[in-house]
């Protein structure tokens, strides 16, 4: 009847331990060779790394000053975080990545972009002034 409905021609599905591992393997075996062939990384964006698949999803908050971005994060975390400043005038002129960890602390941007376990390596292209 239809060739796509024939169960004899089907291959066994690949099994993965988790979604992240499956996406990572599919990207490396199927999508990356296509991107490499057409030089996608030369004109659009760098290739994905393992850290892009292994880390938790991120949420970006953007808005005018004094609209409650820091207060919102503080409410979600139910505590203050290092580098937090709240005031009526513009108090933040940079970005802050708030991540889960065993210890509280601040990691400078220069150190963060060289860590292969974090998904921020591509920010290195913006230079030291941006990272500071």
From TrEMBL:
Which Gene3D superfamilies does this chain map to?
Answer: 1.10.268.20, P-loop containing nucleotide triphosphate hydrolases
Q: Which residues cross the membrane?
A: none
Q: Which InterPro entries match?
A: Dynamin_N, EHD_N, G_DYNAMIN_dom, P-loop_NTPase
Which terms in the GO cellular component ontology are assigned? endomembrane system
Keyword Transferase tagged: no
Pfam families per record: Dynamin_N, EHD_N
Keyword entries, A-Z: GTP-binding, Membrane, Nucleotide-binding
Subcellular localization, as worded in the UniProt entry = Endomembrane system
Using the record's annotation, list all stretches that form the Dynamin-type G domain. Answer: 53-132
The main location is: membrane
| Membrane topology per record | Peripheral membrane protein
Know the name of this protein? Dynamin-type G domain-containing protein
The scientific name of the source species is Cirrhinus mrigala (Mrigala)
